[in-house]
Design a protein that fits this description.
With about 270 residues, the chain is an alpha+beta fold. Helix content is about 35%, strand content about 25%.
């Protein structure tokens, strides 16, 4: 039976129908591993503000396409599971990410030892984990807030991460901050790709600081030429004055000598 399903063009393993929604549940082999998802009715909007994203969840490492059941799929798609709240009212959830199972409380994430803990861990156990200090040494990368599939342009996986200035989408090369109207829980893959495309279209940020500094330096150097010109002009003027003075002195001496000669002849 599994071979027959794999031979289908779609490659879907039909698992059954969700009793609550009436939607068909299938298992597929994706680029990043096997997963389960629901088939949305025809006519369901896939883009825009009213877009509906099908529930999707990766299979556990202990599961396979030919053994996963409808019950397994519904449990997987029920994640993240709310474990409870701490004394300050902050919600703790159990989630299955690309890098494995983990707990999330606000921005604080803690890894779980096994995938089965996602459905079995209690609030007391979760609080005990958070009561322990984080392990020092090599810090584990924060798990993404959401996975959006593969970008059609860069062909790289796109995820939503929690950054210093809020959530953003990234494909590992380009980062784009979510807008005010975007929400981590409802953002669609298409919207994520759109934000990345807009960021790429803007190009890298222009660096103006160096140009401004260069202009200031050039402006400062300009007066030096004027000063040099003034000094040259001053030297020429001084030299001209000296030459004029010499000519005047020589002329006076010549005139005096002529007068003396004339007087001598008269006597």
């Amino acid at each position: 039976y599994a071979e027959e399903l794999l031979a289908k063009p779609s490659g879907d393993f039909e698992l059954g129908t969700d009793p609550e929604t009436g939607r068909q549940i299938v298992a597929r082999d994706g680029r990043y591993g096997p997963y389960v998802t629901e088939i949305l009715p025809e006519g369901t909007p896939k883009t825009g503000k009213n877009a509906v994203k099908p529930r999707t969840a990766s299979l556990f490492k202990s599961m396979s396409l030919d053994t996963v059941t409808l019950e397994d799929a519904l449990k997987l798609m029920s994640l993240p599971r709310v474990v409870g709240t701490d004394a300050e009212g902050v919600e703790i959830t159990a989630q299955n990410g690309r890098y494995g199972p983990y707990l999330k409380k606000g921005t604080d994430s803690r890894s779980l030892e096994s995938e089965d803990q996602l459905f079995s861990i209690t609030l007391e156990q979760a609080l005990a984990i958070y009561a322990q200090p984080k392990q020092r040494g090599r810090a584990a990368a924060k798990p993404p807030l959401k996975e959006l599939g593969t970008d059609p342009v860069s062909e790289r996986p796109v995820v939503v991460k929690d950054g210093r200035f809020g959530p953003y989408v990234t494909d590992g090369e380009t980062n784009a901050t979510l807008r005010r109207d975007d929400d981590v829980e409802t953002i669609t893959p298409e919207r994520g790709y759109e934000l990345l495309a807009e960021k790429r279209a803007k190009g890298p940020a222009k660096k103006t600081a160096k140009k401004a500094t260069a202009k200031k330096t050039a402006a400062k150097k300009a007066p030096a030429k004027k000063t040099a010109a003034k000094k040259t002009a001053a030297k020429k003027t001084t030299a001209a004055k000296k030459t004029t003075a010499k000519k005047t002195t020589t002329a006076k001496k010549t005139a005096a000598a002529a007068k003396s000669a004339a007087s001598a002849e008269a006597e």
